[in-house]
Amino acid sequence: VAPVAPRPGAVVTLRPLGVHEARLDPGGLLGRWQRRNAEDTIPHCVDNLHAHGNIANLRAAAGESGDAFTGMWFADSDVHKTLEGAAWELASSPGDASLRSFVDDTTALLARAQGPDGYLNSYFTVAAPDERWRRPEWSHELYCAGHLVQAAVAAARTGVRPDLAAVARRFADLLVERFGPGGAEEVCGHPEIETALAELYRLTGHRPYLDLARRFLDLRGRGLLGPGRFGPAYYQDHVPVREAAEVTGHAVRQLYLLAGMVDVGVETGDHTLLDAAERLWEDAVHRRTYVTGAHGSRHRDEAYGDPYELPPDRAYAETCAAIASFQWNWRLLLATGRARYADEMERALYNAVAVAVSLDGRRFFYSNPLQSRTGHTGSGEEAQARRLPWYSCACCPPNIARLMASLHGYLATAAGDGLQIHLYAAGSVTAEVAGSAVRVDVRTEYPWQGRIELTVTSEADTPWTLALRVPDWCDAYAVRIGGGPVTAPARDGYVRLTRVWAPGTTVVLDLEMPVRRVTAHPRVDAVRGCVALARGPLVYCLEQADLPPGTVLEDVRLDPAVAVEAGRREDLPDFPVVLTAGGRLAEPGASLYAAAPARERHGAPLTLTAVPYFLWGNRSEGPMRVWIPVAATG
Amino acid sequence: VAPVAPRPGAVVTLRPLGVHEARLDPGGLLGRWQRRNAEDTIPHCVDNLHAHGNIANLRAAAGESGDAFTGMWFADSDVHKTLEGAAWELASSPGDASLRSFVDDTTALLARAQGPDGYLNSYFTVAAPDERWRRPEWSHELYCAGHLVQAAVAAARTGVRPDLAAVARRFADLLVERFGPGGAEEVCGHPEIETALAELYRLTGHRPYLDLARRFLDLRGRGLLGPGRFGPAYYQDHVPVREAAEVTGHAVRQLYLLAGMVDVGVETGDHTLLDAAERLWEDAVHRRTYVTGAHGSRHRDEAYGDPYELPPDRAYAETCAAIASFQWNWRLLLATGRARYADEMERALYNAVAVAVSLDGRRFFYSNPLQSRTGHTGSGEEAQARRLPWYSCACCPPNIARLMASLHGYLATAAGDGLQIHLYAAGSVTAEVAGSAVRVDVRTEYPWQGRIELTVTSEADTPWTLALRVPDWCDAYAVRIGGGPVTAPARDGYVRLTRVWAPGTTVVLDLEMPVRRVTAHPRVDAVRGCVALARGPLVYCLEQADLPPGTVLEDVRLDPAVAVEAGRREDLPDFPVVLTAGGRLAEPGASLYAAAPARERHGAPLTLTAVPYFLWGNRSEGPMRVWIPVAATG
Lengths: 634, 634
Hints:
2 copies of one chain form a homodimer. Chain A is an alpha+beta fold. Chain A folds into 3 domains: 15-410, Glycosyltransferase (Alpha/alpha barrel), CATH 1.50.10; 412-511, Sandwich (Immunoglobulin-like); 516-629, no CATH class. The first copy, chain A, contains 14 helices and 23 strands. Chain A has helices at 29-51, 54-61, 76-92, 97-113, 122-127, 141-157, 164-179, 193-204, 207-219, 251-268, 271-287, 319-336, 339-353, 396-405; strands at residues 15-16, 22-24, 371-372, 412-415, 418-421, 427-433, 436-444, 451-458, 464-469, 477-481, 484-486, 494-499, 505-511, 515-520, 530-535, 538-543, 556-558, 565-567, 578-586, 593-595, 602-612, 624-625, 627-629. In chain A, a hairpin with a 2-residue loop joins β15 (530-535) and β16. In chain A, α6 runs antiparallel to α7, α6 packs parallel to α8 and α12 (319-336) runs antiparallel to α13. β14 of chain A pairs antiparallel with β20 (593-595) of chain B.
């Protein structure tokens, strides 16, 4: 089965499909991304794990070399995440010999690098044996263990390398012994182990893993980690998880923790965990999420900001946080069946996640700002105005690898008397519904067009329900079945079509996809007087490359009196749909501050081209902005 | 003489007054600050140097204890800066026994802590002797040495402890030996030594000090420091100082470096250094300075941002940077005589510097944002919404101490045939002008009122010129001499009154001081649609304390149709002039993002009180904002 596989007894509303029950068509956008991930991103990650010493670190831990440890102390996690991605991909592409050998070699290496007691962490084995388990606020030991577990779960669920689970279990058993009931009362500074142990429980049915995950959640928020450099809220240790009212601190840590809270909540039936997660979702999504679905407003501590503190230029918007949000929302969707979580997955996927990787699949953003100014200088790798091949802290590229390789697992669910399609992509899903095999083939140019054509093949002779999500951005849509229009009001975000499905029945869902001018809540001071252009799930942006030479992007205004049109530009083949808008060029004075504001003066009109945000930076490194100031009129 | 005392041969336009030639009346605002500094801030700093181990570190370095080093590795600099402040103050208050004993004891302690070779740094002596001189990008060794030198210069110029100069010279001689011609080609990661050595040259006339300062400038920008954590631009080592086109990196480092460039430039007659400093001034002031005169837009590296990146909420605006800007502008003013530098001193002093210290003189901001949101959380001490008594990195409080203790030295200059008054404050200045003694007594309630009354006492029987600055914020003013109006057009920012001054002649300068609505350059996206209220040199702000209970500050709008009035509120005795404005309360919806913007809806009007920005946070810790969104009208 797919990433996140609740046990039969879990308190969930929806059930994921199996890993072979969904498929992305490589002709569609998501399928093409997945293909690129297989052909470029994963091999690129593997190459870089070799080039940057991650593999050598494990060899040293296995006693096979005397090399010194290199890289970040949590470098093993990059290996684990790449391995997880490779495992998911190998299930789809079993004939890929190079992928096969990476999975086989790495699994064997991890087994050799593991200590007799089950411990497996090359940094602490090679470079700092005396520090083992002694620096929980900083060490990332359980974080790395968590990613090992997730790799093992993927390798086992897909069947590509079930024996990796034995390595993970040896380590997990050590954790249960050390941190379980009666053991050390500690938590890890970087959450991740919680969701991983819940998944390992799901794979194995071994209850102590779930109990340990819960114990880690229960112990959190009691100040066990100490203040650290950024205070206990940085790693969500300032308040018990069930009592938290706001997302705080390091965004990736917060989001991984929330994923674990949902996992443990649904497996144990502990509603207080799910309630807390939904409460924090509302805080995050209603007060601290970028229009791209990105999380994290502050560079200093890679953290959430104050409510409505959402600067587009200094957005931290870490790639890993967008991925974590996607994974967390999937868990909430399974738990509750609420469309808002699928909406959030879609928003993050097509914007905050997609922007992180280049068209060639081999360069990545770590931070994904919504504005890059003329004259931008960034200090530090995460402030680059361009995608880089790799990072000294390389958490993001392998995270993309594992998400994209498992992406088909997030399209649809089966539950109750039906099949639910949450994300639209060319491909197909199969499932057992009401005791019978069901198949739905999807043809669509989504997200470029709003028409989704589905062909239902069902052997069931009883009625079942095909639920189709109507995205939150969509105000009008039409449904036809077998060519004939049907009245199908969306309820709670889904059109639900219930019938005995004759084999080959066609369903067409037409989502109207006008250009939207999006405004932010007025407390978001950073984008006052601006709009973002969006169409369907895609946020658009202006790039310097589309402006007349010499134009300063910061002086461009959107003319609100001119309609924004969507269309194709033949000279931009990588941008299937661009937007054309009316612009004005402001003519600012020289003074940084002036008394007695006059109305801004504007020069001649110009035509603006907006391109999908996720595609920016593939032509040049010039300035970019999502939020466009609107010219004052009248 | 005063802080910054160019040698007779220096290429400067203006000459500072002597340290006893200017005096602040404690009844005026600046005089009251200076009194508070003497009575509260300096003793508070001394207490904290004892409480936090700074003094103990020096005792350990002197071999008088076996205590371990505590605090930051550059903790000595806090001692040096406090000592500098104490020296300036002791010159004004020679009867202060407690100050006297601090100066005496500390001078003696520093002499004992100094090594036989002249080296003096308690961290490297006590905690890391093997690292001495080995970590220039990080060590702050020359930075600490620079502050020792500045303390010694103050103690010698004022005559309160001339023998401290011997300590400083022993260390400086070691630096000349090690880093001088033929010596190590190194620079310090934190500039400061350059301006300090120039000042030591001014004090002693010993040319090798100036040559070494120039050598450090010449060696900078050649990559000697390596990339470090934030890249070479962080410590201005990315480009030779004469070629820099933009201020970059850590703001305090940049500004101290610029001070050194001006000092060396005027003493050596090297115009390329002054040209570069003026070029960077234009970049800084026209593109990267807050309306409060504060510098530094980014928390992560305490650094300048991109051009026009001036977020009010995440303004770093370090206190030390504001002080450094004040000191740098003073040097530029002396060098060029251009009013724009005095304007900038005034802006920084009354806003960015003044805000850093509480009304009781014993609590301080490290970072001085222009907005603190409802629900603000800061990670790290520099993100507090309230002033703290002390900091683990305590650079700012003693920096305030030394500036305020020497503040009278920055009021006026004497040069050519006259006296120039740059900053208006109740007090008096004396100087020798055209060979005769001259005295000007100043009565004013500035900055609360724009009337400045001067009484000139002159023994000169030849004409000389009294130059009075007309601040850049002032559009209209009137001058009367001896009660009669005179026509006196300002030229280059100064009204110049030339005559044979009969003893006791009164001059009245009336600066009109209407409330100004200040707007920012439209490229400053962060404050689009907002105005700042200002009157005279003071920037104002809204504080939660002045809003009706339950009002969310972020929802307050300024009603542009209502006049803003200045006046006194009897219930706010600490705020001599407050502003009263018309407000509207926005009624935002719940959505963070919405399509199709409607015009913002507003509820009932309310009356807003704006208080001087520098006084915020003295009543409560509630939200605050300088930039106020303007209600859309029409």
